């Protein structure tokens, strides 16, 4: 399903159980990472994402499946390359800096088998890259959270690993630092031409840092794609809801069109029968309801959240509710009768009752135009 | 489905092997003890077990234990409350005074009590007051209680400081008065600390040999010693040792049963409030008087007595012996401290980083070595070495090994708390940077354990320096430590000759107390 020839990391059917009674914490997880790609595994806590990462690092053994790096098998049921021989850098959630060593010594720690001067030079070079040269004599506890984060990254980068694994790298930072550190880490990784797998529960983090995202739920990877793909074209209800707010409607589909609570909507792919559709609040807009256009699908504004650059409306429909993000020029207030209009085709979600028409026959949404009444 | 066994969860062999070795080393000698006891014919065994004398010994041991527990509670409770919940001035100094009695081991205290009374005792010579030499039950009770009450004091103090006072405030808001709150809310929450302190003291009383032997009060331990040293009846000695072990086991099981289901965590998410401090007002004079009397009896009088006898003039030959004794004590204690660390480190590491049934059991063995009455342990080692490793019989190596196993538990505490503070991920970080499992441990975690290891080694070293019963039974012929000399001279009422040795013991014990106090103070 993906370009397989020159991928850097290939994880196939990774499975891990901690007890025989419980379902596996990681269940047949497969994905690949390309050279110089940042891949994020996104999922709620307890979904198995950290265990997946630790299996790649070699800290946990797999029960089934295999891991290949640069074509070399690191892990399969009969092989277990120890973590120290994998050449994979790891950045821990709590950074795990060596508290008894200075910043420079921490970075030098992994630089073995080279001359002393070369070690020093390499470590200083990395500190330069992360902008921490002035702090090289500090001990970890004398650094701020963001600085510790960067030192942890530098320490992992220093021995030039094949790739870097990052476990919730930004979760220990406060909100303000998180934004800037995120950009900084992406810059450093790209500058070092480094591939990375990062694990996070924060969708914004995954969307902004990663080149590609794998969304994980209860031990399974449910969707892999670029940030745009997983955001705009979620495959399941879980993905749709986990990546930001969305409206879920049950609808009756026939081909590229469906009938739902907000009236008739276009679909992103043909379907038939009862389906679950998702449409993002910013892909909806509001219109004044008039006796002419309101044929049983109009709603009443229940609540209005003014957030400066945009407004969120909560609409009570005949059956169910929906939320709509609009720009701040919308004139409606609480109690107004409105009609909800889709701006984009709705996404048909994967569920057992949905019958998919094979992918090849999907029309692109542009030829179908606006949903008609 | 081919489920691969999780080998990662098994501790590395270089930690597992020493830990298992400790378990075997504690158990094996005890097994030999049992063999030795049932060695004789059944008729003889039956006679030995159902002797009338055993009942007397049991009664003596239990009544002494009960007496000591009551006395220490009476001493420790007010002491702990005063230093943790009141505005008494000089809190730190008073706490230190409460720990200081630990510096005067039971047998030294017994020696000073013996040297105090009688027609030529300190009191008679200094003040012309003649009191009977304390001896028997009351003498033992006094010596052991004064020496051990700090254990209960420290536990209770920690308990008081850890109490969540908002529960008391809640009780107050529900209409309870001060005394009722104490009985219904405060004391029940202190159960844990109280039992912990009682356990240490109870085990100590059962195992104590020095004080009861000098006071000539026949408990199991003293009787065991008499059988072994004087009557040479080893089968009966083995049976007494087994009875001692049974008693110890009963106490351990009782403790386990008592503590089961007790949990006093704060529930809810509110932050713990600072302790409410009671203003003593005029009561503080009563408090000071209490502290003064305890300090006088437990610390001042013993030290004055030792110094007094020292001033009576010591035979110059004794000074030579003193040098030898110090050398012997260090020669046995220092390697024992190192060996104990070598055992304790893997045990602590496994129990914290690889918690499992196995590691739990292994760790219990370490504590079992500590709980085993020292005389019984020593006797077990004698039997074991005689039949299994005769070349080690009465060797210094065996003595060191026994010390290490017995005091191992003392070094576990500091090492464990140091390990808790070392972040577990740093070893994984080192491994992802290319270091092997052992090197990762050695370069990252080990340096962080340094202070814990030093403290642990110091505890074992200082405890071994003042250890008496194990030394008595296991030391090579002619090997006399400080403790052995204090005991032998006191036993023959040669108080002046015992004085220099007692002073040396005091010196090392004060270091021990200082170490304990420094840790305790930091924690609180």
Mind explaining what this structure looks like?
The complex is a heterodimer of chains A (373) and B (524). Chain A has 373 residues and is an alpha+beta fold. Chain A folds into two domains: 7-237, 3-Layer(aba) Sandwich (Rossmann fold), CATH 3.40.50; 246-368, OB fold (Dihydrolipoamide Acetyltransferase, E2P) (Beta Barrel). Chain A has nine helices and 20 strands. In chain A, the strands form four sheets. A six-stranded mixed sheet of chain A has the order 7-8-9-3-10-11, with helices on both faces. Chain A has a five-stranded antiparallel sheet with strand order 2-1-4-5-6, covered by helices on one side. In chain A, strands 14-18-15-16-17 form a five-stranded antiparallel sheet, with no helix packed on it. Chain B has a domain at 11-39 and 313-491: MetI-like (MetI-like fold, Orthogonal Bundle). Chain B contains 22 helices and no strands. Chain B has helices spanning 13-37, 42-49, 52-85, 91-99, 106-116, 122-127, 136-162, 165-173, 178-207, 210-214, 220-231, 234-259, 283-311, 316-353, 357-371, 374-387, 396-421, 425-432, 437-466, 469-474, 482-491, 495-523. The longest helix of chain B is centred in the middle third of the chain and has 38 residues, at 316-353. The model of chain B is unreliable at 1-8 and 263-273 (pLDDT under 50). Chain A binds chain B through residues 17, 20, 57-64, 77, 80, 82-90, 92, 94, 96-100, 109-110, 112, 152, 155-156, 159, 161, 165, and chain B through 1-4, 6-8, 423, 425-426, 428-437, 440, 443-444, 447-448.
């Amino acid at each position: 399903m993906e370009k397989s020839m020159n991928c850097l990391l290939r994880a196939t059917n990774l499975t891990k159980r901690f007890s025989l009674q419980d379902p596996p914490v990681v269940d047949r997880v497969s994905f690949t990472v390309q050279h110089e790609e940042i891949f994020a595994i996104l999922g709620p806590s307890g979904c198995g994402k950290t265990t997946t990462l630790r299996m790649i690092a070699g800290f946990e053994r797999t029960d089934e499946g295999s891991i290949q790096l640069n074509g070399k098998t690191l892990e399969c049921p009969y092989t277990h390359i120890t973590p120290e021989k994998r050449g994979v850098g790891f950045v821990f959630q709590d950074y795990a800096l060596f508290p008894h060593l200075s910043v420079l010594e921490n970075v030098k720690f992994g630089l073995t088998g080279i001359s002393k001067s070369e070690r020093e030079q390499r470590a200083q070079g990395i500190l330069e890259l992360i902008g921490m040269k002035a702090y090289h004599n500090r001990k970890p506890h004398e650094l701020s959270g963001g600085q510790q984060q960067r030192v942890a990254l530098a320490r992992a980068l220093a021995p030039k690993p094949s790739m870097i694994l990052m476990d919730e790298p930004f979760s220990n930072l406060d909100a303000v630092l998180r934004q800037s550190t995120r950009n900084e880490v992406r810059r450093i990784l790209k500058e070092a031409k480094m591939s990375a797998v990062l694990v996070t529960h924060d969708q914004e983090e995954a969307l902004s840092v990663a080149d590609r995202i794998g969304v994980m739920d209860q031990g399974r990877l449910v969707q892999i794609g670029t940030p745009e793909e997983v955001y705009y074209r979620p495959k399941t209800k879980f993905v749709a809801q986990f990546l930001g707010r969305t409206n879920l409607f049950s609808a009756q589909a026939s081909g590229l069109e469906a009938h739902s609570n907000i009236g008739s909507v276009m679909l992103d792919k043909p379907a038939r029968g009862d389906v679950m559709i998702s449409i993002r609040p910013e892909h909806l807009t509001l219109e004044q309801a008039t006796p002419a256009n309101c044929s049983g699908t109009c709603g009443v504004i229940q609540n209005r959240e003014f957030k400066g650059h945009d407004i969120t409306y909560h609409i009570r429909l005949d059956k169910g509710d929906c939320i709509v993000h609009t720009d701040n020029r919308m004139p409606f207030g609480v109690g107004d009768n409105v009609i909800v209009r889709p701006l984009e085709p709705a996404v048909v979600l994967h569920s057992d009752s949905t019958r998919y028409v094979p992918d090849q026959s999907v029309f692109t949404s542009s030829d179908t135009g606006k949903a008609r009444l | 489905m081919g489920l691969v066994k999780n080998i990662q969860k098994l501790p590395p062999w270089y930690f597992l092997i020493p830990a298992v070795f400790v378990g075997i080393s504690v158990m094996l000698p005890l097994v030999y003890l049992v063999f030795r006891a049932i060695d004789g014919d059944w008729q003889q065994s039956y006679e030995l077990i159902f002797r009338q004398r055993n009942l007397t010994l049991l009664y003596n041991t239990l009544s002494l234990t009960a007496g000591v527990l009551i006395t220490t509670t009476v001493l420790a409770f007010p002491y702990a409350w005063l230093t943790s919940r009141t505005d008494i001035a000089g809190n730190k100094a008073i706490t230190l005074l409460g720990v200081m009695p630990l510096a005067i081991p039971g047998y030294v205290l017994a020696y000073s009590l013996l040297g105090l009374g009688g027609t030529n005792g300190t009191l008679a010579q200094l003040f012309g007051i003649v009191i009977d030499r304390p001896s028997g039950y009351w003498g033992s009770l006094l010596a052991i209680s004064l020496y051990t009450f700090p254990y209960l004091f420290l536990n209770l103090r920690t308990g008081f400081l850890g109490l969540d006072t908002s529960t008391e405030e809640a009780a107050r808001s529900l209409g309870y008065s001060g005394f009722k709150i104490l009985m219904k809310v405060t004391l029940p929450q202190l159960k844990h600390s109280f039992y912990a302190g009682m356990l240490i003291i109870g085990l100590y009383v059962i195992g104590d040999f020095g004080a009861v032997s000098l006071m000539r009060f026949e408990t199991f331990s003293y009787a065991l010693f008499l059988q072994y040293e004087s009557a040479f009846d080893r089968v009966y000695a083995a049976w007494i040792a087994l009875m001692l072990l049974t008693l110890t086991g009963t106490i351990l099981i009782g403790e386990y049963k008592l503590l089961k289901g007790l949990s006093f965590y704060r529930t809810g998410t509110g932050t713990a409030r600072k302790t409410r401090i009671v203003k003593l007002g005029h009561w503080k004079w009563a408090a000071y008087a209490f502290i003064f009397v305890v300090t006088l009896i437990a610390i001042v009088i013993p030290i004055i007595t030792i110094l007094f006898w020292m001033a009576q003039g010591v035979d110059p030959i004794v000074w030579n012996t003193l040098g030898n004794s110090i050398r012997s004590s260090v020669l046995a204690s220092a390697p024992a401290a190192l060996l104990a660390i070598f055992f304790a480190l893997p045990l602590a590491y496994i129990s914290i980083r690889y918690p499992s049934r196995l590691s739990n059991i292994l760790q219990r063995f370490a504590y079992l070595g500590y709980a085993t009455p020292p005389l019984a342990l020593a006797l077990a080692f004698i039997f074991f070495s005689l039949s299994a490793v005769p070349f080690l019989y009465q060797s210094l190596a065996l003595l060191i090994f026994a010390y290490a196993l017995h005091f191992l538990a003392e070094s576990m505490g500091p090492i464990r708390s140091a390990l808790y503070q070392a972040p577990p991920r740093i070893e994984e970080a080192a491994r992802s940077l290319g270091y092997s499992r052992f090197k990762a441990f050695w370069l990252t975690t080990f340096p962080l354990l340094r202070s814990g290891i030093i403290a642990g080694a110091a505890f074992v070293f200082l405890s071994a320096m003042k250890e008496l019963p194990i030394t008595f039974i296991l030391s090579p012929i002619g090997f006399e430590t400080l403790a052995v000399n204090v005991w032998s001279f006191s036993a023959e009422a040669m108080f002046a000759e015992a004085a220099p040795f007692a002073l040396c013991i005091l010196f090392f014990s004060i270091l021990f107390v200082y170490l304990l106090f420094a840790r305790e103070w930091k924690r609180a």
